[in-house]
What we know:
The complex is a heterodimer.
Chain A: H1 12-16, H2 27-36, E1 40-44, H3 51-59, E2 65-70, H4 78-84, E3 94-99, H5 106-115, E4 121-126, E5 134-137, H6 142-152, H7 162-168, H8 173-186
Parallel strand pairs in A: 1-4, 1-5, 2-3, 3-4
Chain B: E1 3-8, E2 14-15, E3 20-28, E4 35-46, E5 52-61, E6 66-74, E7 82-83, E8 87-98, E9 103-110, E10 117-118, H1 119-122
Parallel strand pairs in B: 2-9, 7-10
Antiparallel strand pairs in B: 1-3, 3-6, 4-5, 4-8, 7-8, 8-9
Amino acid sequence: MTGRPADNPFASRRIDRLEYRFQGIDVQSITDRLRKTGGRGSVIGPHGSGKTTLLEHLAERLDGRPVWVRLSAQTPRPVEAAVSKLPRPITKEHAVLIDGAEQLGPWSWWRLRRRTRNARAIIITSHSPGRLPTLHECTTSQELLTNLVDTLAPGMAENIDLDELFLRHEGNIRLCFRELYDAWARG
Amino acid sequence: MTVLRIDTDDNRRWYLPGDTISGRAVWSLDEPCEKVELRLFWHTSGKGTEDVEIVNSLSFTADATHGDRAFSFTLPLGPYSFSGTLITLTWALELITLPDGAVESVELIVSPTPVEVRLEDLDRAPRGFTLNLTPGRNKR
């Protein structure tokens, strides 16, 4: 008999509760940088490096009312989906958080920028720099993976070659967690 | 100290699909809130995106800091409480204060059997027997 998915330490609910692990920087430095860039900035990094987790962490510390736009490769017509969810009008009361801005082409990005230009703050996540000033670049390491696994499933790190797992998934922690979910489910 | 409590009749946790869940919602708050809401819902948890559906709810105006109210909900015929490889579907009652969001919840089993359905066990069902998870459609 395998373990129940609800009890799996790598269930998405438990992963979503993990807090972003700052490495060599703290949240205050990032919010200070955001103030200097006029409330516009981006969190960049590869897949599974914690961009969304950090964005959620930052959202709790912004003055404006958060307005989330979540985009993914599965989002059909991403800009229409994004714009349709925005309040009208976007004002100084709002802080717009766009997760997955790399899904937007130049024209879509321009439309979204225009639509949200009055917002108090705009923070995006993206795979590469360039669209807004970089606030922070998310990176991963074997040590970070070990640390997170110890938090979710104490003792499990001793029985699994996490270094090999990390390298095989090219540092994508989310993919590592998915494989660990299956490993735990198999017992 | 804020105390929220859900007492189901006879402290029951297992219900058949279509059963009635009844009991009392009790609260004692440090400060009055706008309202207290009791929700009957199910949610999934596991490997992928989670789904939640609030099936029924009751709102109580909480102008006082203490309350003790009877409730009764009729369960739908499905989905059943179950666990597979990828997800567990869990039924629960939740008592929540609004807008501050203090919460107490009680997990329930909604199933023809006293334990949640284990999908892996269905493979071991006798030949010729089919358990369809759509209620009312079990065939022999």
